[in-house]
Predict the structure.
Amino acid sequence: MKRQLMTAAAACTLAIAAVGCAGMTNATVPATVPQTAAPAQTGTFPVSAAGAAAFVADAEARLADLFEYAARVQWVRATNITFDTMWLESRVNAEVTELQVQLAGEAARFNDVQVPEDVRRKLNLLRLGIVLPAPNRPGAAAELAEITTRLDSTYATGKFNYQGREITLDDASEMLAESRDPAVTRALYEGWRTISPVMRDDYARMVEIANEGSRELGFADTGAMWRAGYDMEPDAFAAETDRLWEQVKPFYENLHCYVRSRLNARYGDAVQPDSGPIRADLLGNMWSQQWGNIYDVVAPTTGGASSYDMTELLTRADYDATKMVRTGEGFYTSLGLAALPETFWERSQITRPRDREVVCHASAWDVDNLDDIRIKMCTQVNAEDFYTVHHELGHNYYQRAYKDQPFLFKNGANDGFHEAIGDFVGLSALTPTYLNQIGLLDTVPGEAEDIPFLLKMALDKIAFMPFGLMVDRWRWDVFSGETSPAGYNDAWSANMLKYQGLVPPGPRPADAFDPGAKYHIPGNTPYTRYFLAHIYQFQFHRAACEQAGWTGPLHRCSIYGNEEVGQRFNAMMEMGQSRPWPEAMAAFTGESGNDASAVTEYFAPLNVWLTEQNRGKPCGWEA
Ligand code: X8Z
Ligand code: ZN
């Protein structure tokens, strides 16, 4: 489970009120909403500094207790989706939301009281730590919980008919990554999106309830509440993401232009013209969010391509899912961090169980906010999951590092930090030098492979950035009312075009609800965090490499085995959410803000190369 703001059980799953992504069909969802426990006492703490401190201590104890209970229920549902586990989860999520909303309301009583800085921060976090608040009227939290569990469940159990066979997202994703037949990729792209039209009305109702709750907490709408979680004014945060995107956009446009031209060479004008947007299903990923799977299509034709394929290396070395996770752990322990506890291995879900419905979207859990850390994945032996394993373990190592903080500070400095830890480690773990050190690669390729390597990295990292931005741009407009339910799908397609320069393979049906076919929408996991993480991981990487005394190009640097860097990184992680995030950033990097210059520095040689490849071609697209 993930709780956002407040401590955090899991990363990538969701927020407290919404939890997980599990599923069963709509028909099996409980028709009546479970009742929640009796409300706790209110107003028992005097409006004074001492009263505020006592209130906060009491709130932390109550939240810690309920969150652990909720996390265990959520784990059971996410790893075994049935009518009953959904029923239980809806009930506990409603209870959690009610407690959070009640505490947020009570925290406001201390608005005008002079209190120590840490108490003020905790009072603020009580208000900011709810992803989807319910209004304070009977039945609202229960209705919200019922909807969010149903949305989540519909996604997790989604299947569609493909060539006479019912297939899951795993099957479809694998085929989409491998197929180079545009009729096949189109069928898979459109097929997966047949699971989501049924979600649209629920989604619209959920937005109404959450907005009502957000307004009661003093926010204009739920999007404004989400933007308030970054130790700055919500508007300033939105402007900050614009500024970062402007820093990276020219590079994305260069990559887009090059990839478009190679797709045109491969598929011809009828499938992919050499101008305008790219057809989204040709990029090897169900949401076109990472394009690394089509490296073979876009590999340099002169000057040498990459001599290895990560998936092949893993298969040839006989890796299985557990060995992938052990290898990930090995990177973290090489930094001087402790091995994962035995219970991690006993309790994690590492592969998809055959006998039941589960939530496959990867997540990392901190069930008791102390030692009971786990991952939940349906790991496959391929390059994508090699990355994902390092990503998830980053969440677990962060959770472990801040476990001695008070409850309300047990979280990332901001949610982008939580997503960036494992990605930062992954930047080293994907270097040929490291792959050679662990025996996956026989020799370390020379400089001639720098461009192919950087191209592969850019296909995942740079291609991701506009997607990382557009998901919440869509949601911010939905929450503000700028986009109405009737316009949900058109607004999604418009954002794809505006930010990513992509179009669906064909016209979308009138009832389409394409956002619902992306986990984080029915799962209610805010998404700007991933955009930030794609900036932060490079800031962390550049700082770590400097600390390690590395003077070569950034993309060749690996911090594997460097305990001194590990210790400094852990010191930042141990801070949790106890201080505004710029202080955590400064503690490790010496920089105090968001800065995309490390991204451009890392990829600089590739940008020069892409500019050359694109010479004479008109780049860009009309939005
Ligand atoms: O959801 C995730 C992680 C869990 S926090 C697997 N990611 C985003 C996604 O899959 O859309 C990691 C990268 C972006
Ligand atoms: Zn994550």
